[in-house]
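Q: Sequence in, structure out?
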Amino acid sequence: MMTADQIRSLQPALAALLETFRPYLGRASNFRHLLAYVLGLTADLKRKSIEPIALAAGAAVRTLQEFLSFLDWDHESANDHLHRVVMDRHGCARAIGVLDACGHAKQGRMTPGVSRQWCGESGKIDNCVVGQHLLYSDNHPTNPFNCALSSDLFLPEAWSKDRERCCKAHIPDEVIHRPKWRMALDQVQRAIANGVRFWFLTFDEDYGKVPAFWFELDAMGQQAIGEVPANFHVFAKRPAYRSPQKAHASKRVDNLCRFSPLFREQPWRCVTVRDATRGPIVWEVKTARVHLTDTAEKPSRPTHRQYALIVARHVETGEIKYFISNAAACVPLGDLLTAAFARWQIELWFERAKQEAGLGAFEVRTYRSLLRHWFCSRLAMYFLAAQTQRLRGEKSADHAGASGGGDQRSGVDDVEAYLALTG
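A: Exactly. Output:
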């Protein structure tokens, strides 16, 4: 979190960034509200909800409440613009897209989507709100740039069936319960439509365990690698017959990696995943080409397409992970693992976003205000990440605009004068 002096020094650059969002803000006063709210999210406040932000900014609490809940501005188009800003200023050839769901513990029952469900924040089944997020990383080894492109509310089934409750929270009728993997696909498609390009997508087993999710990524032409659970079923080869007999059935990946000649007859290869402060993180890996199961029919049948199955074992702890990738066979194993283990940076992003930009500090009772809070928080985190990268001065050569421009400009010299002139 920034001190008052640091915030003051970066206000001109923030005002310059937010100026590019003006076409989506409607009336001129909304620009001031957005600037005040984003500044408050980056400030050193104990709580980063509407009331303390308004008091710190000298604004009326009611005004910022209305800015998030009722005032007319297009946060969806503003989010599309954020996608384009990220690509124009930080696009690179080896960008990683990360899909993740994040839970925020909440008390009471009025916050949109709040329910007893798995909450990563508390590490247990808890009363919480879950957001489905798409994040972007250049995966730079020394000066990484990370930001969140999209955030959507995961609506539990109990909420979806109780339309009266949804109405009270101003949740539109078209917003219904959908699995996170389906929400994730929509987020990826929208980002691609806005010009975002991912070298790889990566995700945990909640997404990877769904064959239909892989087939949709294939249809998009999107390269991906993701974790799958030990009981995920694949075919080592296409069986000669379609039969329910065990000999012709698909196999669990943990059993396949232990007993199949595809894996048993090849040695472990040591791969340094990344260098950490305590030394290199090394995993042993084996890989082979397999077929996924088409679960639309019984008995299940193998896909015509082959996928990479990777088993990875941590050298020190013995932890085992299983990955599936739809990348072509010619893609180097090192590239697959680079993408697969890129998620650690995003886990760090969530931690910082909650601490530094109030991602989970919302105290709202409407669907629109929740989405707008998440948008403002992500915008604040984007700004902090861009300024951090600029101040470190270590931009990778493959970044668009690496030689200058973008967020390196100083912005507006006098914010107060600027606001007075622009309204």
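The longest helix spans residues 367-392.
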